[in-house]
Amino acid sequence: MIKKVLASVTALAAAITLVSCGPQNSEFSGVKNSGECTITLSWWGGDERHEATKAAAELFESRHPEINVETEYGSWSGWKNKIFSQFESGECADVMQVNYDWLVSLSYDGSGFYDLEKLGKYIDLENFDKSILEFGRRNGVLNAVPASVTGRTLFYNKNAFESAGAELPETWDDLFTAAEKLNRQGAYPLEADNGSGFTAFYLAVVYEQQKTGHQFITEDGNIGFDVSELSDALSFYKSLQDAGVVRSVEMMNGGNGNFYESDSWKNGKTAGIAEWGSSVSKYRSALNNSDSLVCGPLLEMDGAEGTGWMYKPSVLFAVNSKTEHPAESAMLLDFLLNDPDCARILGTTRGIPASASALEALQGTDMLSGPAWDSANILFDSKPVLISPYFENSEMQKYYRQAIESVSLGILSPEEAARGIYANIIYTLREIKEGLA
């Protein structure tokens, strides 16, 4: 997908210069600028994203002095619960950064967010490949526009690996070999948290998808693993823990706050992460030597039936369906996604831009280099599979965490844990599709 966007950016940018700079949509009707007003913008992320987005909002205000932008932001931890509570009470921001799976939960029939095609006078949708825009549709309604497309890849503190005499792994077997060397220094090659990121379960799913060629949760919301495959995935996770590749749940639970702020990460005692390319900047910034963070190869196995690795929209921007200022909100959304000056401020804090004009603005800069850029190219060279929007549902994540915790602590065997969550997953998928979860 990112390759397609990169290949078409020059043609799209050239076409944009041949027409007026603003969005064009002859079908627009029913929305008018409301004069001087205040609109709100909400997002989550790390400090680098926060500072860049606040600076972007200030630039927007300087261009539109009649529009005041109030910002609301925080870390990912607890953010989803906060936004969902605001959504239920009708107190959401006018312009919202949203996650891919939120569209299923908050706008199952497409009515949860504003129909952005009705705001086409203010949003240049021609900057986006049609397949990119499909990620933001629910029931045919364009509810959101992706800022970028991303996936989890593997990032390593190369200095920590070099200090232990370990090579960056290219296969799963290499990962176990690296663990032997890092463990001698009291270090681990990879973090597999069991919190909101559910990285431990994610890695187990990648391994099993690679091994079997089956997709854990399909795009239409069905489970693609049987109990034995789910059990095998959990057994693989247990082997990572037993071999010292990852810390146990008990060890991870001993830490406080965000992992990228922990001594374990900063001091190289945990030397790798499986993280979204769009979110890795906070890990890089936290290291004493930020240049030591590199993106490594996606791990493979002999005889793999599929890539196993996955991609999705990193984050999307949506407009509150109840906003009193739809025109101004759409103007801000367009600015965040498409404006070249804004693109140079935001850089890759939300990943490699999906907008042709934003991407073109970054050409020739050092922003299209480094771990985030390498991540995008490594991921999409692997022909990843699309993550189902049902995969990251909060209720589903609860089952993943329970399974990992029970296996890690030895409360249940992988087989017992797999049987325990399998029926719950099927039940929850049905509830989601019926709009009950």
Explain this structure to me?
The chain folds into 2 domains: 2-150 and 313-381, Periplasmic binding protein-like II (D-Maltodextrin-Binding Protein, domain 2, 3-Layer(aba) Sandwich), CATH 3.40.190.10; 152-308 and 393-433, 3-Layer(aba) Sandwich (D-Maltodextrin-Binding Protein, domain 2). The chain has 18 helices and 13 strands. The protein has helices spanning 2-18, 47-63, 79-89, 102-106, 130-134, 158-163, 172-183, 199-212, 227-242, 249-252, 263-266, 281-286, 326-338, 340-346, 356-362, 370-381, 394-408, 414-433, and strands at residues 37-44, 67-74, 95-98, 137-138, 141-142, 144-146, 149-150, 152-157, 272-276, 293-296, 310-313, 316-319, 385-386. A hairpin with a 2-residue loop joins strand 4 (137-138) and strand 5 (141-142). Helix 9 (227-242) crosses helix 18 (414-433). The longest helix has 20 residues, at 414-433.
